[in-house]
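Re-running the complex after MR caught last week's input typo. The corrected sequence lines follow. Everything else is unchanged.
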Amino acid sequence: MDKTVADLATAVAGIEDGMSVMIGGFGGAGSPIELVHALIDRHLATGHPRNLTVINNNAGNGHVGLAALIETGMVAKLICSFPRSADPVVFTERYLAGEIELELVPQGTLAERIRAGGAGIPAFYTPTGFGTDLARGKAVAEFDGRSYVQERWLKADVALVKAERADRHGNLTYRAAARNFNPLMCMAATETIVQASHVVEAGAIDPEQVVTPGIFVQKVVRVANPAQEEDLNRANASYPEVAA
Amino acid sequence: MSLKLTNNQIAWRAAQDIADGAYVNLGIGFPEKVAQYQPPGRQAIFHTENGILDFGESPAPGSEDWDLINAGKKAVTLKPGAAFFHHADSFAMVRGGHLDVAILGAYEVAENGDLANWSTGPRGVPAVGGAMDLVHGAKRVAVITDHVTKDGRPKLVKRCSLPLTGVGCVTRVYTSLAVIDIEGGRFVLREKLPSVSLEELQALTGAELVVPGAIADLVVPEL
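Corrected-run output:
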């Protein structure tokens, strides 16, 4: 078994118009910037994919990664918990102009909806959001004297994920707090595409240390020295690079 | 002592109620100050929604690791015994009742324990983050806040007028003038600055203050 693919372009070649795409990361930590940029490259070369629904905790920062995906005009709808950042201008302008749809989800509910999607659980009840605007129109039930809101699972056609190490079977480990949504999104997508700093032979990751078992992963591509969104933003980078 | 507590002093007062070894989540911004004022000999374990238990202070500028951030996206460090976990586990800690205390900011707190702290209305881009999750599940949900808004209106009110973060969730409020518990749908005064009379405090509060006998002085060091 070998889930590795040759390069980033090959990794994202199957993403089509109108698909739902989960993108891992919390702010910049764990954000698969190189996969996102490869998707932008494909759009610039072919006009596709577009009209994407993106699921991420945030809405991008600056003009790289998810912000650049939005800026390129590829995103029709965003499902997230916190569409603000140090530099949220790309999303903010499009949202206020009515050019992008927003589904705002409390952060823990977003995580659990994704987990439920991956675990085959179509709905669950949570106290989060009960009695608030974000529970409007949702079913409510009482358990042991307390009220809970029904939330639905969240699945996607594709997940773009950043890992630290991957073996050829797709077993993954993550680095520090770059883990965040990544393991959940691996479970919830039909096709999970992983960029990993290190790609190793099967058996080179101690089974005790595997965080995401390879059954949840379809493609692995090596990105040896991934960029950090924070570093790119501090350097005022944008993608694609603006010619000087 | 000045007429009201500074934010640092409010944070100090809130920190005195956190036990050694407590698992604590501090909201982004002002509540983060609480971590600075733990009494000597006590060490709480701080939780951040994005998947760290037992993180510490910011690293020196230039030595940040951007995979090691808190919920406010600020670089942090780890203490011995720290742990990483994914977002579903992180919010299981929150919703599952495993945190001892959550300390949050507020736009408004109502006498029935309702909290409004995520939205000031329909304008602009709405953003909620983990606020609605945090108010459910922690054994104690406390608010730290100025007693009144910048233009002098009460922040402690009969019913919230702004969009709610959670219903009936707040149990204690530390303000710039007083410490107030929420019990049985009422504000119960526990401590107040000695320089503020009960009548003055009531006039700055948007719902009735229940006064259960003697009120302790709210005494805080200069910080």
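None of the earlier attempt is carried over here. The domain at 7-57+68-217 of chain B is CATH 3.40.1080.10 (Glutaconate Coenzyme A-transferase). The helical segments of chain B are 7-15, 87-95, 131-134, 198-203.
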